[in-house]
Amino acid sequence: MSGHDETCGAEQARFWRDADLAGTEFLLARFVSHRFSPHCHDEYAIGMIEHGVEAYRYRGHNRVAEAGEMVIVEPGEAHTGEPGAPDGWQYRMFYIPTHLFERAAEAAGRTGLPHFGKTVINDPEVASAMRAMHVASQRGEPQLERESRFAGLLTTLVERYAEGVLQLPRHPARASAGVRRAIELAETSYAEPLTLGELARAAGLSDFHFARQFADATGMSPHRYVVQRRVTEACRLLRTRSAPAEVAMQVGFADQAHMTRHFKRTMGVTPARFAAR
């Protein structure tokens, strides 16, 4: 387990991966002017605000999370992130593989992936446990301590806040048959120089009509969706220690600088820092 810091003015971000927790990834960051582009994760993105205020858009609504509150974003749900106060916000995030939450649900006497209807939660006890778990991983505390804290945290979240079963994948289920065809094309040909016309033709719609239906179904424009897919694949390749410059070309970015710009808007850190962890 290792981590790397990235500092730019008043903004700081540290990203690391904990192999003892099935590859759960962690982010400790302070952002003052940084704004996340619309994006989604394959994992549950869960965290707590330590200082300041984060504003974000999620499930079609603008949200605000303040210091001491927790945020839950489910897999496949498009969202943004930006300062909700002049001095920005500092938070501790977990990116938790879905199978771990499935195991937590089983421990809580449930089946399937847990669905969290609330995205902002005010629960000082759980927030304190979340921070303690995050710090334990950051400091590299003994494996048994990290595993015990982690299992307890996930099980408690399920017991207190899960509201049924999460159905995956999310986006195609909300889309028309035509838009699902376009999503499939974007998923398989993301590294190609796709055009709006090509995607619209796959959907059997006019360009403008398609762009609106696609955004309604996915929460992202067609361009952002393709960029998201490229970033997701870039993360996978960077985890294998592939060089960032090579990864950029493989996933369809014009060059490493192009990938870096979009990667940071999605992940909060540069590809080089992500790979170096």
Structural overview:
Keywords: Activator, DNA-binding, Transcription, Transcription regulation. It holds the Pfam family AraC_binding. Residues 180-277 form the HTH araC/xylS-type domain. It comes from Pendulispora brunnea. InterPro entries: AraC-bd, AraC_XylS_family_regulators, Homeodomain-like_sf, HTH-like, HTH_AraC, HTH_AraC-typ_CS. The protein is an alpha+beta fold. The chain folds into two domains: 2-165, Sandwich (Jelly Rolls); 171-276, Orthogonal Bundle (Arc Repressor Mutant, subunit A). It contains eleven helices and twelve strands. The strands form two sheets. Strands 1, 2, 3, 4, 5, 6, 7, 8, 9 and 11 form a ten-stranded antiparallel beta sheet that branches. Strands 10-12 form a two-stranded antiparallel sheet. Helix 1 (98-107) packs across helix 3, helix 2 packs antiparallel against helix 3 (143-161) and helix 6 (196-203) packs across helix 7 (207-218). The chain is globular, with a radius of gyration of 19 Å. The model has no long low-confidence stretch (mean pLDDT 93).
Helix content: 40-55%
CATH architecture of the largest domain: Sandwich
In terms of DSSP E residues, the strand content is 25-35%
Work out the radius of gyration: 19 Å
Biggest sheet character: 10 strands, antiparallel
